[in-house]
Design goal:
391 residues; eight-stranded parallel β-sheet; 7 helices
Length: 391
């Protein structure tokens, strides 16, 4: 791998406070880097043909930062750390010592503190993570603005691996909020308390608070204050190869995929259409790509889970039936649903001006209640088409 010369980067219009301390690989396309107001601080190292930097992007402001195939929207920033296969929309930020891996999408002004690990993670606008957090394989929505947002307290872990099956199980993605309601920025915020965690897969509703200092294993609906769960204790005979209630994890995975399909459609049919210039369109296409890769990952993990599952005595036939239904539905699940509420879709997308003068959050907040209701019916029909695919 070779490197673009500092002279070439400066001539392109990048701001390099210390040119000799910045490396941009020659597989990075300069036409995907905004010509003005992009700052690469000392210690920035960029590579990958999917790299994309819009005006106002900042890299390595607080230490060395290695970015591989990362897309940063206007005003987005990476303080320091290692980031690969991620997209940050306008104003989103990753704090110092981040470790961010494939399938990660931070929408407008979503942010993290220091030493946060993300993978296959989607944060809808304004969602905020504290520091010293592992938040992989999950989606967080909720809130209406930068002052009213869902938040995860420092020291929180989303436990996304179990030892069950042949080699373990990651069919464990969790939903904190959803996409059908969350994309419209009208829902109550969610708070996940620090020094605690969640054993996936679970769901948590809007307006709910999981108190700090506990590990949670159950689902919780809207508007609940949960003080903790009774700690588990004791010992019993155990065989890690045995998977109990496999249908529960498959059902949760289908719900998660359905929500991602809804988010994918929202980006493709609304946000991409509203994108302005070529770089803005490329950013939206990058976001859609992250969502699509997250869908592929969830389907792959269910494949792996069912392949490695061993049923309890007496439940073998039920597991075989589940495998057969999954195998039959798998090709359908790999494609975007077609059986959706087209009337609601048309009503939502054609109900008014797309207002290219407004930033996306302002555009969404300006939608009428009637139009939002149509949008929710449309996106909800996408989720329903996915979640009933095994019926």
């Amino acid at each position: 791998m070779g490197w673009h010369s500092s002279e070439t980067l400066l001539a392109h219009g990048l701001c390099l406070p210390a040119p000799d301390a910045v490396r941009v690989a020659d597989d990075v396309r300069l036409d995907r880097l905004a010509r003005h107001d992009v700052v690469l601080h000392p210690g920035a190292r960029l590579s990958g043909p999917e790299t994309l930097l819009l005006a106002g992007a900042r890299v390595a402001g607080e230490g060395p930062a290695v970015l591989v195939d990362v897309a940063l929207g206007r005003g987005a920033s990476v303080a320091s750390g290692s980031v690969s296969g991620a997209t940050l929309l306008a104003g989103a930020s990753l704090g110092p010592d981040s470790q961010v891996r494939a399938g990660t999408l931070l929408e407008e002004e979503a942010s993290t503190g220091h030493a946060v690990g993300l993978k296959q993670t989607i944060l809808l606008p304004y969602a905020t993570l504290g520091s010293l957090i592992n938040f992989c394989d999950c989606l967080l929505a909720g809130g209406t603005s930068r002052k009213d947002h869902s938040e995860v307290g420092s020291g929180f872990i989303h436990f996304n691996f179990t030892p069950f099956g042949k080699s373990g199980d990651k069919a464990t993605a969790s939903l904190f909020g959803d996409c059908v309601r969350g994309v419209f920025l009208r829902e109550r915020r969610i708070f996940l308390g620090g020094s605690g965690g969640v054993v996936g897969p679970i769901t948590v509703g809007y307006g709910s608070v999981l108190a700090a200092g506990s590990v949670y294993r159950k689902d919780y609906g809207d508007d609940l204050l949960v003080y903790g769960e009774k700690p588990l204790s004791g010992a019993r005979p155990f065989d890690a190869r045995i998977v109990r209630r496999p249908e529960r994890k498959v059902d949760r995975a289908l719900r998660y995929v359905g929500e991602l399909r809804a988010l994918e459609a929202f980006h493709r049919e609304l946000r991409l259409v509203r994108a302005g210039d070529e770089l803005e369109r490329a950013l939206e296409e990058s976001a859609i790509g992250r969502i699509s890769s997250a869908i592929d990952e969830r389907l792959r993990q269910v494949d792996r889970f069912l392949d490695g599952a061993q049923a309890e005595v007496g439940a073998e036939a039920a597991l075989d039936d589940l495998r057969a239904r999954w195998s039959g539905a798998r090709p359908v699940l790999a494609a975007a649903p077609t059986a959706v509420d087209e009337a609601a879709r048309a009503e939502f997308l054609e109900a008014g001006d797309l207002r290219p003068d407004l930033e996306h959050p302002e555009f969404v907040r300006a939608l009428t209640d009637h139009r939002v209701a149509a949008g929710r019916r449309w996106l909800g029909s996408i989720v329903a088409a996915v979640t009933t695919a095994l019926s």
